[in-house]
Amino acid sequence: MYAHPDDLHRARSVGAAARPEFEAWLALQKAVDREDGAVPRRYRELISVAVALVTQCAYCLDVHTAAARRHGVTAEELAETAFVTASVRAGGTPAHALLADRLFEQHSHHVPSVTSASAVAPSC
C-alpha cells in the first residue's frame, strides 16, 4: 500500500528539506485549526473531510476524520458529508456541459473549412 499512516511521521523530515515552505504551511494550518473562527471547528473538519474525499488524500482523511470525531462529528454527519461531496463533485460535469454548450455554439460562427484529412484539432 502506497499510503501508510506511519508516513505522517515523516512530515517533519520532509519539512526540514524545505523549511521556509514548511513553516509557511504550518502557519496556514495553525490558522485554519483555530477554535475561535466564525466557522466552528467541527464544520471546518467536515469541510476538510469533504476536500480530502475529492482530492482522494488518504493522509488527509486519516487526520481529519480523527479531528472530526474529537470535535463531536457523528457517523451520520460524516456519511452525509460524503454523499453531499459526491453530489457536488458529480454536479461539475453537467455544470461544465453548460460551458461546453456555449463554446460549441460560439464555434459554429467560426467553423473553418476542413479540406484535407491532415487537419486535426489540437489536443489538450
Describe, in short, the structure shown.
It is built from five helices and no strands. It has 124 residues and is mainly α.
What do you see in this structure?
There is one protein chain. The chain is mostly helical and 124 residues long. 65% of the residues lie in helices and 0% in strands. The protein has five helices and no strands. The chain has helices spanning 11-16, 19-32, 41-55, 58-70, 75-107. The longest helix has 33 residues, at 75-107. The radius of gyration is 22 Å and the shape is extended.
Spatial gap, N to C terminus: 32 Å
Low-confidence stretches: none
Mean pLDDT metric: 90
Order of secondary-structure elements: HHHHH
Shape summary? extended
Instruction: Give the amount of beta strand, in percent.
Output: under 5%
Query: Percent helix among the residues?
Result: 55-70%
Number of strands: 0
Task: Supply the key terms.
extended, mainly alpha, 124 residues
Write the layout of secondary structure elements.
Blueprint: H1 11-16, H2 19-32, H3 41-55, H4 58-70, H5 75-107
Helix pairs in contact: 3-4, 3-5
